User: Fold these one by one.
Assistant:
Number 1:
Amino acid sequence: MSDVWKARLAGASAGAVNGLFGGGGGMIFLPLLSGQLKDRRLFATCVAVILPICCVSAAVYFLRGGLSFLTALPYLAGGAVGGFVGGRFYGKIPTIWLRRAFGLFLLYGGVRYLL
């Protein structure tokens, strides 16, 4: 299988995960790209992938009547501020702490879903 088809399959998997669970599409790319990119570029690439995938998922949710903009609005405002602050700290936090924090978020999310 060519690299282009592997990338397309990974993108389709990320989109499916994002659509089914309402987020998390970028997590698909972490293990796939971890050998190809350095940590900081890896995290930035995964974040960059999230936006278009989430836009497509949100459009589908909206068309099917499952999206409430009023409920989402406070989270969007907080997310924009958090994204700005995180972007400003990009490159200033050691990657070991980024990996640990990401792992803890994954663990927390997994436990929450199981309970």
Number 2:
Amino acid sequence: MTPFHLAFPVRDLDETRAFYGEVLGCAIGRASATWVDFNLFGHQMSAHLRPQATEAARDGKVDGLAVPIPHFGAVLPMDEWERLAARLEARSDIDWLERPMVRFKGEPGEQATLFIRDPSGNALEFKGFRSLEQVFAH
């Protein structure tokens, strides 16, 4: 797997470090006074300080449900997704957009999914697949 890089806006670096580091369990990488890097399941995520950051609108549609656009996240093997979902559900401070569910049940590309929002309003989706070969199934 080749990791991707994503730079995204956040309104506060301390709350961002707490969310990505403590809530999602991301290792924290390099940082400065205006940005911080995280290892999100092997991918380089760079949070850049933008106090005027806004929340994603829920104006996309997938499988009949409204989803926030834009959003980002990670595709995980099902066992890893289940551990993440359980860890998030055990917390009372998660800003849920969509609680854990299965989408496209019984179809090619069946996947577990959940959507949360970080403290800056960025929408994140985490998907789980029983076989990663199904990620691009149609």
Number 3:
Amino acid sequence: MFKKVALATALGTAALATAGQAMAAEYVVDTEGQHAFIQFKINHLGYSYILGNFEEFEGRFYYDADDLEASSVEMEVQVNSLNSNHAERDRHFLSDDFLSAGDYPTATFVSTGFEPTGDNEGVLTGELTLKGETREIEMPVTLMGEGEDPWGNYRAGFEGSTMLTLADFGIDMSDFPEVMEELELYVTFEGVRQ
């Protein structure tokens, strides 16, 4: 259902006021070109899966290939932009039964650290706020590539995924099979260096 793995534009400057982060290049997530996705996958009663995504979000990240530990990310997701290709189900997801989008219209993610684990790989830690609850999460991430695009911009792209326990964010799944208590959040995006 919803992993706003979200990383916010408005949250970033204050959170990034360290010297190491100041040296990392700033990238804005390319949502205009539809080169960024926040998707989710949850088991449906043990028989299949429900797949969906959040269509409206914005974010930025700071990245320096020579100083990976200075990397950081922040995002903000509009919860009402949830789309699982079924309008009635989406309304239910957004209701007080699950996301309470009327009371909690945004979800945010602000990183608190990054630990390289290998070539082009690492673990991003940060605070995910969803439905008014903030929890620290870890997400293994991979650098997909970086370089100049055909229009003279410099881009870098990443992907990552993590499992979220819905009860951690105040989402009661007790009426459903145990396999529905967790949701997989998958994020992929390109950023344009500023």
Number 4:
Amino acid sequence: MTIQRIKPGPRMSGAVVHGNTVYLAGQVANATAGKSVGEQTQEILSIIDGLLAEAGTDKTKILMTNIWLTDMATFQEMNAVWDSWVAQGNAPARATVEAKLAAPQYKVEIAVIAAK
């Protein structure tokens, strides 16, 4: 079975497709780094939409999502953006935890696994 790497880099790929499964790397905000969790979440979900489209799928086929927040006090703020984005009737399995991220300007990171 072939493996397709989308946006490959020296350390990781943005997404990897194996068979009918798409694995996205954890995504962080670029343009909104340092801004609110809501703004970062909105940007990240847009990045995820783009990567899923490149892989030939979309958010209606997300199977699992992992979300990391630097502060669980921002859980509701992140959820407000998530709830308006997630495909109604197609909510994936999901885990959300508090964690220290790679750099202080990042307040949220999101990774998904989707079917094609």
